[in-house]
Amino acid sequence: MGVSAVIIGRNEGARLIACLEAARGRFDRIVYVDSGSTDGSQQAARVRGAEVVELDMGTPFTAARARNAGFARLCEGGKTPEFVQFLDGDCILQPGWIETALAFLRANPAAVIACGRCRERYPDRSVYNRLADIEWDTPIGQTKACGGDMLIRTGALLAVGGYDPTLIAGEEPELCVRLRAAGWQIWRLDAEMTLHDAAMTRFGQWWRRAARGGYAYAQAVAMHGRPPERHGVPELVRIVGWGMLLPLMILAGLALTPWAALLVLIWPAQMMRRWRKGDPWYQAVFVTLAKFPEAQGVLTYLWRRLRRAPIALIEYK
Predict the structure, then answer these.
(1) pLDDT at position 1
(2) Nearest to 135 by CA among 117, 114, 151, 113
């Protein structure tokens, strides 16, 4: 078949078992890369026929580093597959996806990545899971970026040097920037690809995930923010405006007049505007509120960069 899989995970437990069971028998090889799990994930993967790579705990973990390690295992001995399906350990591959994606890539030689519909497995368990389900619902067709689950041509991945292991988030869009610069196309197909289990049930989880997103946007702009790509620039501008400048303006205004406190109504007004344009109420509320944890993430990136601090994950599970 010429297709192998790289699955990455860290303490995913039953989610990883479901992922491995769904992938079992559908690839030439399956490599599971573990980032320091303490829940028996390594043995669970071996029992289900996967090759296991355990990352050295002396080096900071990132998803990008894990994917590179899994891909390197597949390439050992000169037996590089033609295609590789990357999967996160909290995702379940859907029937028919591999056949659909393979057919598309083979029929479209300019396409390097095929990704499909990713949906939340349990969207009704929390508002945060529902928000993730909306987040995955991106337009069909040629696109600029993809998420962690994708089928990719291995030759192109080798040519651009794989993932950037220094990124704690946003490594897939950054890879897509380099692939598109090399002339390749990224496509999202109208086909079911994976079920994802965000497992977000607490406000704190949502906050940390949003903070990680802000960190990723800041790093994206630092790497590829210049024209013509301007990678991450629109998102960073919104974060800085809504999450930093407006609060500072209100605080400065309060030094002059207590009426400046009325400016806090800008955020409810923005929520109402989004709701009237068609967003569900919870999306309107949380997308607006997200600018605050995202701003925290931006400041965390700047502080770490100023101090030249080592890589550190921002985990929400």
Answers:
(1) 58
(2) 117
Say if residue 194 is exposed, middle or buried (CB neighbours under 10 Å; 0-12, 13-18, 19+): buried
Reported as a single tens digit per residue, the pLDDT across 196-219 is 999 999 999 999 999 999 999 999
Q: How far apart are CA 91 and CA 68, in angstroms?
A: 19
Instruction: Determine how many CB atoms are found less than 10 A away from the CB of residue 313.
Output: 14
Q: Closest by alpha carbon to 19, among 52, 50, 40?
A: 50
Angstrom distance (rounded) from CA 46 to CA 52:
7
C-alpha to C-alpha distance for 173 and 155, rounded to whole angstroms: 18
Token readout for 264 is: 């806090």
Cα pseudo-dihedral 54, 60, 65, 69, rounded to 10? -30
Distance CA 80, CA 314 (A): 32
Cβ atoms of residues 61 and 167 within 8 Å: no
